[in-house]
Specification:
There is one protein chain. The protein has 536 residues and is an all-alpha fold. The protein contains 17 helices and no strands. Helix 1 packs across helix 6, helix 7 packs antiparallel against helix 8 and helix 8 crosses helix 11. It starts with 17 loop residues before the first helix and ends with a helix.
């Protein structure tokens, strides 16, 4: 069975690992009184459970401190929100840091998968070993009950033989042999009963019940842990995708999910630390707990030590030797009775007794095999090694890298929040209406028509009130020459610029016409009396 354990220990005595000794030496403090207690594994003691809860609360306290740190970090971001900061400052570098953090999270999650598999593997081997030990105990009970049943039947037939012999012979020696056979059946039955009483299965039944609880924990814990790790992997991929695509809303949503995952990770770390400390206390001295439970179930100490060590004399050797002597004496007496009394009735009874004794011998030999320490000791060593080598190491991996994953989540939350704040909100361009009174319309002809209509309703002024035409007006006149539109001389510059924006292709296509229109506009200005000479 030793091939089932990753670390081979066949033929070697169990010795606790450095991890078990290291965690066992941690101070065991009650969370109620904050006083140090004994570190011996005793799940039935409430004070010992309080020490385990003390260590289970440490990750929860750390979780609270990290949440306070996140709140302070968020407040600092809010205070710096109105300060003039370049939106592109450090964004690319921050993106790469987030992606690198997520890759580290993926590696950490992979190690957690390995630790979960190692823990589950150790629990499977432990349950298998306990089931094998229970099967051995069931076989012992079965063989002991079968042997006792045969002796009860043999006792009844021996009484019948004792009553029949006076008819066959008056030899007192033969009659004494029949009485010796009857006494031997009682003695043989009591001997087997004594072996069965010493090996009663109360302790094994208790271990079987505990193994069923451990098996349920394996199924439930393994499923939940695998599901959470898969969700964490999906979350890492989502963070990388949103960061690469610069999706601000997705980054904020992923940060919220990271906070939830961060909380769950540290809560699970508290539960794992509770189990790790308790399992380390058990693995430092597992035989002590087994002896303690054996005393509670009234199992003799010599029997317990015989199966734990398997290096001493069996406590059943004397009983089995005495049983063999009585058995052979009874068989010898039956042969003598069969030879000295050939009557048919006596021969039938003797033949029946020999059949019961033969079946008793078969059950007794099987009982000797099952009562040997080798098989139960192998099951015990397999169970202890599976828990204290595989499961303990797996829990250590899960706790260590779960804590690393929690810290990486914290870093990723801070990085994601900082990236979202630096990216800022995307501004949406709203298209203005065509008749907005504060903006010139896109259609230049409509602008000229509306301006001309407004000029018609205004009183005309004399030529002395007319302003000199600027370069902007000249540019508008040139554009009017290109598009055959009459442009008023005192058109505001904003309208002229609006028209120029709507006519970029016409300007590029008619360079010669622009020059002619500019010359005509200059002549018109001179005719109005505003030449350079007149101004001087």
């Amino acid at each position: 069975m030793w091939f089932m354990v990753d670390r081979t220990h066949s033929g070697d005595e169990y010795s606790p690992t450095w991890l078990a000794n290291f965690i066992h030496n941690w101070p065991h403090v009650s969370y109620k009184t904050f006083t140090r207690s004994a570190s011996e594994f005793d799940p039935g003691n409430g004070e010992y459970i309080e020490t385990l809860l003390f260590w289970a609360g440490m990750p929860i306290v750390w979780l609270g401190l990290c949440i306070v740190t996140l709140l302070l970090f968020s407040c600092c971001l809010c205070l710096k929100r109105n300060q003039p900061v370049s939106l592109r400052k450090g964004i690319i570098r921050l993106r790469w840091w987030i992606i690198f953090t997520m890759l580290l999270c993926v590696i950490t999650i992979g190690v957690c998968f390995y630790g979960n598999a190692l823990t589950s593997n150790g629990i499977d081997h432990y349950v298998h070993a306990i089931e094998e030990a229970n099967k051995t105990m069931v076989d012992i009970d079965k063989n002991a009950d079968g042997a006792q049943t045969e002796m009860v039947s043999a006792y009844n037939r021996a009484e019948e033989l004792e009553d029949t012999l006076p008819v066959c012979t008056s030899n007192t020696t033969v009659q004494q042999m029949a009485r010796d056979v009857k006494i031997a059946t009682v003695s043989l039955r009591n001997s087997v009963s004594e072996v069965g009483d010493k090996l009663h299965g109360d302790l094994v039944n208790y271990l079987v019940e505990s193994s069923e609880d451990v098996s349920r924990y394996r199924v439930l814990g393994w499923s939940i842990f695998i599901g959470l790790l898969c969700v964490d992997l999906v979350l890492c991929v989502a963070v990388i995708f949103c960061t690469g695509k610069s999706i601000r809303g997705g980054i904020i949503f992923c940060c919220i999910l990271l906070i939830i995952a961060f909380t769950i990770v540290w809560i699970i770390a508290g539960a794992e630390l509770f189990l790790l400390v308790g399992l380390s206390d058990f693995c430092v001295n597992p035989s002590r707990y087994v002896i303690q439970e054996a005393e509670r179930n009234n199992v003799p100490d010599d029997v317990v030590w015989y199966y734990l060590g398997c290096n001493g004399t069996s406590p059943f050797d004397q009983t089995f030797r005495e049983t063999d002597r009585q058995f052979y004496d009874a068989e010898d007496d039956l042969r003598k009775i069969s030879m000295m009394c050939p009557q048919q009735d006596v021969q039938v009874i003797v033949s029946t007794l020999e059949g019961h004794f033969s079946q008793y011998k078969t059950d007794l030999d099987q009982l000797k095999i099952d009562a040997n320490c080798q098989q139960l000791n192998d099951d015990y060593n397999l169970a202890v090694s599976s828990l204290c080598y595989n499961s303990l190491s797996g829990l250590g991996y899960q706790l260590l890298f779960g804590a690393i994953l929690g810290m990486l989540w914290l870093v990723a939350i801070c990085q994601g929040t900082l990236l979202a704040s630096r990216m800022g909100r995307r501004k949406m361009n709203y298209e203005a209406e065509q008749e907005d009174p504060f903006l010139p319309p896109r259609d230049g002809s409509a602008t000229l028509e509306r301006y001309s209509a407004r000029r018609e309703h205004q009183p005309s002024t004399s030529g002395m009130n007319r302003r000199p035409q600027s370069s902007t007006s000249q540019r508008g006149s040139s554009i009017a020459g290109q598009s055959n539109i009459t442009v008023p001389e005192d058109l505001p510059p904003s309208y002229t610029l609006a028209i120029s924006r709507d006519r970029p292709n016409q300007r590029r296509g008619h360079q010669s016409q622009q020059q002619q229109a500019a010359t005509a506009s200059a002549d018109t200005t001179n005719d109005g009396g505003y030449s350079a000479a007149s101004l001087v």
